[in-house]
């Protein structure tokens, strides 16, 4: 039968970690979108800053090679 121990490359874990981080962070945008008309412009600016931080983080991960399979 053999061992149940399988060794995976680190790139699979890094890709999964980056996916989970950005997936969880985008879930925080839903409450802002649902109550946008009540909260006003200041919350829109905060959400815009939040999205810009997400974009900067994804560009950083892309340039570091965390999103590449090779």
TrEMBL record:
<keyword id="KW-1133">Transmembrane helix</keyword>
<dbReference type="GO" id="GO:0030964">
    <property type="term" value="C:NADH dehydrogenase complex"/>
</dbReference>
<comment type="function">
    <text>Core subunit of the mitochondrial membrane respiratory chain NADH dehydrogenase (Complex I) that is believed to belong to the minimal assembly required for catalysis. Complex I functions in the transfer of electrons from NADH to the respiratory chain. The immediate electron acceptor for the enzyme is believed to be ubiquinone.</text>
</comment>
<dbReference type="InterPro" id="IPR000440">
    <property type="entry name" value="NADH_UbQ/plastoQ_OxRdtase_su3"/>
</dbReference>
<dbReference type="GO" id="GO:0009507">
    <property type="term" value="C:chloroplast"/>
</dbReference>
<protein>
    <recommendedName>
        <fullName>NADH-ubiquinone oxidoreductase chain 3</fullName>
    </recommendedName>
</protein>
<feature type="transmembrane region" description="Helical">
    <location>
        <begin position="12"/>
        <end position="32"/>
    </location>
</feature>
<keyword id="KW-0812">Transmembrane</keyword>
<keyword id="KW-1278">Translocase</keyword>
<comment type="similarity">
    <text>Belongs to the complex I subunit 3 family.</text>
</comment>
<dbReference type="Pfam" id="PF00507">
    <property type="entry name" value="Oxidored_q4"/>
</dbReference>
<dbReference type="GO" id="GO:0008137">
    <property type="term" value="F:NADH dehydrogenase (ubiquinone) activity"/>
</dbReference>
<keyword id="KW-0472">Membrane</keyword>
<keyword id="KW-0813">Transport</keyword>
<feature type="transmembrane region" description="Helical">
    <location>
        <begin position="38"/>
        <end position="62"/>
    </location>
</feature>
<dbReference type="InterPro" id="IPR038430">
    <property type="entry name" value="NDAH_ubi_oxred_su3_sf"/>
</dbReference>
């Amino acid at each position: 039968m053999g061992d149940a121990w399988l060794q995976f490359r680190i790139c699979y874990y890094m890709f999964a970690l980056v996916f989970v981080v950005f997936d969880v962070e985008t879930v925080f945008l839903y409450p802002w979108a649902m109550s946008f008309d009540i909260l006003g412009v200041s919350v829109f600016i905060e959400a815009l800053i939040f999205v810009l931080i997400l974009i900067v983080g994804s560009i950083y991960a892309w340039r570091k090679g965390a999103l590449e399979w090779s």
